[in-house]
């Protein structure tokens, strides 16, 4: 499913919601979709930094631990962990603690299947 990023704030979100509600009321089908709405483009840029987009692209390819992700991206693990938390709040990535036999637990990060980001400015 494609995740569409909007920068038109509450008014744009409300307009899209009314359109979907009208289609449902009329019995018309519409494709499943997921969207993230920001108040403006500056707010979007604060979340979707180049480092976070690189992280997102890396976890789209395979589920990976935060430590391995940090090594792959050449970044500090604590910074990667913070970025994972920020992206997770918007549903762009998921993480979970899993057992790592003999080494405690490890946080694994993945992206939802078939997710991509497109933005309208």
Task: Describe what you observe in this structure.
- The chain has one domain (2-119): Arc Repressor Mutant, subunit A (Orthogonal Bundle).
- The protein has five helices and six strands; from the N terminus they run E-H-E-H-H-E-H-H-E-E-E.
- It has 121 residues and is α/β, with parallel strands linked by helices.
- The protein is 47% helix and 22% strand.
- It has a three-stranded parallel sheet with strand order 2-1-6, covered by helices on one side.
- Helix 4 (66-73) packs across helix 5.
- Strand 4 and strand 5 (105-110) form a beta hairpin.
Secondary-structure map with pairings?
Elements: E1 2-6, H1 9-25, E2 34-37, H2 41-47, H3 50-61, E3 64-65, H4 66-73, H5 77-89, E4 94-99, E5 105-110, E6 116-119
Parallel strand pairs: 1-2, 1-6
Antiparallel strand pairs: 3-5, 4-5
Helix pairs in contact: 3-5, 4-5
Tag the structure with descriptive keywords.
alpha/beta; 47% helix; three-stranded antiparallel beta sheet; 22% strand; Arc Repressor Mutant, subunit A; 121 residues; 5 helices; three-stranded parallel beta sheet
